[in-house]
Specification:
about 75% helix; 3 helices; mainly alpha; about 70 residues
């Protein structure tokens, strides 16, 4: 089931959304849904990373090479 969310955008941002959606040949709604999903994923990833980095540092993991050594 879908729910409707009404937002207001400044005119320039509204124009940019419209142009970007047309360029991608998708609806403005789909463009905004995708943008929101990406933002939520990015925030979840950053929060996971924020929590994991101190644990990694405590275990002596500082670089990609350190990770590769552990998983190889």
């Amino acid at each position: 089931m879908r729910a409707t969310l009404t937002i207001s955008l400044p005119p320039m941002l509204r124009r940019d959304v419209s142009r970007a959606a047309k360029f991608r040949r998708i609806s403005e709604s789909e463009f905004v849904r995708t943008a929101v999903q990406r933002q939520l994923w990015t925030e979840a990833f950053e929060e996971s990373r924020r929590q994991a980095v101190p644990q990694a540092r405590a275990a002596g993991i500082y670089t990609d090479e350190d990770v590769f050594k552990i998983v190889s």
